[in-house]
Amino acid sequence: MRIPISWLAEFVELPVGTTVDDIHAALVSVGLEEEGSHDFDLEGPIVVGEVLEFGDEPQSNGKTIRWCSVRVALPGRLAADGGADVRGIVCGAHNFFVGDKVVVTLPGAVLPGGFAIAARKTYGHVSDGMIASARELGLGDDHDGILRLATLGLDPEVGTDALALLSLDDAAVEVNVTPDRGYAFSIRGIAREYAHATGAVFRDPAAGLDAPDDLDGFSVVIDDEAPIRGRVGASVFVTRVVRGVDPTLPSPAWLVSRLKLAGIRSISLIVDITNYVMIELGQPIHGYDLDRLTGGIVVRRPRAGETLKTLDGQTRTLDPEDLVIADDSGAIGLAGVMGGFTTEISDETTNVLVEAANFDPVSIARTARRHKLPSEASKRFERGVDPEVAAAAAARVVQLLEELAGGRADTLGSVHHAHTALEPIFLPDSYISGLVGVNYTDDEITSSLIEIGATLEYAHDGLLVTPPSWRPDLTHKSTLAEEVARIVGYSRIPSEVPVAPPGRGLTREQRLRRLAGETLASAGSTEVLAYPFVSSASNELFGSPDGSPVAAVKLANPLDAEVPYLRVTLLPGLVDIARRNLSRGLTDLALFEIGAVFQPVAGTRYGVEEVPAGALLPDADTLARLDASIPPQPWHVGLLALGNAIDKQPGQPAVPVGIADVLDTVRVLAAALDVPIVVRQSSHAALHPGRTAEIVVPIEGANTVSVGYVGELLPALAGDLDLPRVVAVSELDLGALIELAARTVEATPLAGYPAATQDVSLVVAADVPAADVLNAVRLGSGELLESIRLVDDYRGSGIEPGSKSLTFALRFRAPDRTLTAAEASEARIAGAAEAERRFGAIVRE
Predict the structure, then answer these.
(1) First and final CA of the chain: distance in angstroms?
(2) pLDDT score at 746
């Protein structure tokens, strides 16, 4: 929220010399976060000038310039820069006339962006200044010609300071407003907060404004008999009529300046007035061309297949949950989001219908996201607008239309008010002091609550506190405690670290997940966090080994319709992050992510039809129902590497990344978790068929548990994704690894006797995984086998086609004696025999 200082000063007293930093400090003290400051980035001398004469001079480049004589000070006076009162200025615009009052930037002035003005020779003349356009002054986007002050209804004295005249000497502070404090999206709300922080007197801009008693005759029907989720779409709806407005009149400079500083572009006088009141009071306003309305207004849900052309020119298909404003011709606006094209205010509008309403925040938020149509109005409605300010806001718009647009108020209008007051909150004695840890006096508590606008009733052992209409976020006694703490001052809260109770700490799973992240980071990978929302194609490509459809959870209201599913695998997110970084010149990447994936059981419906009330503690049945509504969410770890593992350097060529690098990282992770893993050949629809492996963990006997895979993306797929030809990836079930991790670590005793080493070469079918053969030899060799490694895979001369020769290095050792060669040979033969029994392996001599 941007707050022009001059606007703020209208409703709360600012001491002389108050700076942007002073205002920020005050607002931060009551819980508003500082964002920055804004001004027009102008430095004088910038003054009012009068065009005395000019001559058109065609140039060789086809352009015609004007050599102008401009008075910049009254006769006999020095100009603002100390020079003569009449200046010669070159101007490329042609939209002004002799006698026009214009804005002149004299030498020494600085325009936005650090553009300094100086006397300079151009087109054969020395131009002693510049005549400015609205865009050059930061007032708007118009750059077709210079700014003629007459078009703003101004006729100031020559030499007048144009910065003060056009309110260009103002500045704005910007604060971040949290979603629960929608009232602070207004000058009214910020002024109240500044008063809380400094004790300055607050003058409510809504005071004294209301709908007249004789307002009647305009038909408004709230047709929402079947509200969405039990919430009526509109609880307040006020209409006023102003006749005889002149929409061609210019918006005053002070209004344009304030809107600009508040981040709102000036459009036209009537629209500017509605935006001005929205910023001032926090109540979005919509204006209709009364003569283009057909009948009265109906607030309803859309009919099946109904469409609406909104003010941005797009025709939108309406959803049954939307809330629309309609007349006899059909929908004419998306309530609380954007008006319709058919009743738009135009230069022909003379009679205006002013609407100030209060809409259901949930309905407005869903509509704005559904249609990807955020607006200043929806931003306020979805956070909650004061239902009691609608009539005052409509009256303020009528007042400005009369003062600035020449209109006259009509008694035609309506007032619908069905909003219920906020429920009182019981605040027990001593609750706030016990919660915050500060001994607040009763006077501090009551005065703080009264200051925020609450009404109090004394009850047995406490207070009944009714929040003000603009504070729907106050729903519990704890929220009242927060208000007292910030109004009295956060400095009163002691800075003492509480003592952690014994027996607490991270669970085993949490500790091992942290260990996994620290291990991968230490191994040279960078942790990333990807969005969990993906497309169906991504889930099928990376989440299914054979590319078949996979069960996935689809969001009912996705942020992006192109990625409406929750991920079943981490790889789509890692690939997207790699593509983004690669496009920014980061060609060597080693990434990892630890996160949850969502793997629903096919045919099971997830989600709840009714969300339990947040104010009530759910019972066991409710918790069980909520648990059943959530799909399984195992923790996975994903790895991706591309580019060079070692950069090129003198005497050393670059070493590109491959599957071996990611596999080494997987082994490091497994060693850190103390999980023995075995790598065996596998396949995956998205991975290179010859460079894909399954990661398994041996358990009892010959059984294994699959915990993930490692491989390289298909080169064609990598090309389609604008990635290098070689992209190595891996995904592991971290939850399964943690479950299989050793509960206790046993130290391996030092060997006291020498080892016996032997090799064995076995010929098997080429499609038999080497890991399975190794496991068979390991099991057959018995307890004397200390280690076994695959050292060669030969498929050349001397080996039958379709076969391969696998050579294993075996190391045998006995804990109590020195082995004989015969004992080692016997164990080796037993291992080979087991491989022969399982896979038909033949010992190769």
Answers:
(1) 82
(2) 66
pLDDT of residue 601: 86
Rounded to whole angstroms, the Cα distance separating 11 from 22 reads: 17
Confidence of residue 432 (pLDDT cuts 50, 70, 90): very high
| Cα-only R_g, the chain | 38
Note whether 320 and 366 are within 8 A (CB): no
Rounded CA-CA distance 284/276 in Å is 10
Sign of the dihedral defined by the CA atoms of residues 515, 520, 526, 528, in that order:
negative
Cα–Cα distances in angstroms (integers) from residue 215 to residues 211, 222, 292, 390, in the given order = 7, 18, 21, 14
Mind spelling out the 3-state secondary structure of 81-125? Answer: CCCCCEEEEEECCCCCCCCCEEEEECCCCEECCCEECCCEEECCE
Which tens digit of pLDDT belongs to each residue from 541-595?
998 888 788 889 888 888 888 999 999 999 999 999 999 999 999 999 999 999 9
C-beta of residue 97 within 8 angstroms of C-beta of residue 25: no
Sheet containing 171-176: give its strands across: 2-4, 171-176, 33-39
How far CA 656 is from CA of 392, 587, 668, in Å, comes to 69, 11, 20
| DSSP tag of 448 | H
Asked if 640 and 661 touch (Cβ cutoff 8 Å), the reply is no
Average pLDDT of the residues in 188-200? 95
Of the two residues 702 and 394, the one the predictor is more confident about is 394
Residue 20 to residue 55: CA distance in whole angstroms: 45
- Please state the pTM of the whole predicted model: 0.68
Strand partners, 761: 807
Q: 240-273 burial by CB neighbour count: b if 16+ within 10 A, else e?
A: bbbeebebebbbbbebbbbbbbbebebebbbbbb
The distance from CA 549 to its chain's CA centroid, rounded to whole angstroms, is 31
Integer Cα distance of 574 and 580 in angstroms: 10
Distance of alpha carbon 667 from alpha carbon 646, whole angstroms: 19
What are the chain's domains?
2-40+171-198 (3.30.56.10), 46-165 (2.40.50.140), 216-417 (3.50.40.10), 425-492 (3.30.56.10), 507-605+625-744 (3.30.930.10), 756-843 (3.30.70.380)
Q: What is the pLDDT of residue 837?
A: 93
- Residue 140, pLDDT above cutoff 80: no
Q: Facing residues of 218 across strands?
A: none
Average pLDDT over every residue of 119-142: 88
- Please list, in sequence order, all residues whose beta carbon lies within 8 angstroms of the beta carbon of residue 128, skipping any fewer than 6 positions away: 83, 87, 88, 89, 106, 107, 119
The closest alpha carbon to 286, from 358, 196, 372, 235, belongs to: 358
Structure tokens at 780: 């057959």
What is the reported pLDDT for 216?
87
Pairing assessment for the beta strands 455-459 and 324-327 based on DSSP bridges: unpaired
CA dist 336 and 371 (Å) reads 13
Question: Mean pLDDT over residues 791-806, rounded?
Answer: 91
Mapped onto helix, strand or coil, the DSSP state of residue 422 is: coil
Adjacent-strand bridge partners of 655: 646
Asked if the bond preceding 689 is cis, omega within 30° of 0, the reply is no
The reported pLDDT for the residue numbered 285 is 96
Integer angstrom CA distances of residue 406 from 83, 226, 339, 400, 814: 42, 42, 24, 9, 106
| Gap between the Cα atoms of 82 and 314, Å rounded | 54
CB 39 within 8 A of CB 138: no
Query: What residues pair up with 110 in beta bridges, in sequence order?
Result: 43, 116
pLDDT the model gives residue 228: 56
Which tokens hold the place of 417?
A: 């008010």
Q: What is the spatial distance between Cα 833 and Cα 839, in angstroms, rounded to a whole number?
A: 10
Token pair 């919660």 in the structure block, residue:
435
Please provide the average confidence, as pLDDT, over all residues in the chain: 91
CA distance 473 to 180: 6
Per-residue pLDDT tens for 344-403? 999 999 999 999 999 999 889 999 999 999 999 999 999 999 999 999 999 999 999 999
